[in-house]
Amino acid sequence: MFAVIKTGGKQFRVAANDEITIAKLVGEPGDTVAFGEVLMLTDGEKSTVGAPFLGDITVAGEIVKQARGEKVIAFKKRRRQNSKRKRGFRAELTIVRITDILTGGKKPEMKKGDASAVALKAASPATKGKAEPKAAKSAAKAEALDASNLSLISGVGPTIEKKLRAAGIVSWNEIAAWSEADVAKWDEELKLRGRATREEWVEQAKELLAGKPPRAKADQAELASGEDY
């Protein structure tokens, strides 16, 4: 049995006991992580594809260690301009060992003391339409979204997302913790031209962590309908 999961904007084919290297997740070695964005499950000759995710499938894993990728050097020189620049970068990574693929809506047992572990699970179709407390709904929304998906912040496109990841910014938590000085620093280093302030990236990151829907999706829905939200 194997599954295809999505995390950090990438897809991985995983089976029990596999080790995968993914974009950094917050947690310590030994922490339990759960991936709910399962795109496909294959058991023997039977394959099931999600639309877009399989709500009753969860892939459980355990953080092996936090690591960094190989150094990448970017060198830029302007001919006859007496101008050159050299910059290095090492991506922040997490090595995870897959422990189990749970079906039928089962959830993994999160180890005691691993509150920092990131649980990424999609809402189960069986629970749709049932009345839930407001706080529970907000928590469910927050869990259903991938904190490493920077593109859910309105104004962060593919090019800017690459710049952020190259600078080691791989989750909403880091953006939500930015101070005014941090915003100014990254605006200058990444050539954002005031976009982070103008489009309120810090506030958007805090909203996403609180379980609110992404502004990016709301903006797209507004454009499609022609109505104000």
UniProtKB/TrEMBL annotation:
One Gene Ontology term from the biological process aspect of the record: translation
* Cellular component, GO, one term: cytoplasm
Q: Which UniProt keywords apply?
A: Ribonucleoprotein, Ribosomal protein, RNA-binding, rRNA-binding
Residue intervals passing through the bilayer: none
Q: Which residues form the signal peptide?
A: none
Read off the InterPro entries from this record: bL21-like (IPR028909), bL21-like_sf (IPR036164), Ribosomal_bL21 (IPR001787)
Top-level lineage group:
Bacteria
The record's listing under Pfam families reads: Ribosomal_L21p
The annotated region (Disordered) lies at 207-229
How does the record describe its quaternary structure? Part of the 50S ribosomal subunit. Contacts protein L20.
Q: What does this protein do?
A: This protein binds to 23S rRNA in the presence of protein L20.
NCBIfam families hit by this protein: L21, PRK12278.1-4
Similarity-based family: Belongs to the bacterial ribosomal protein bL21 family.
Q: What is this protein called?
A: Large ribosomal subunit protein bL21
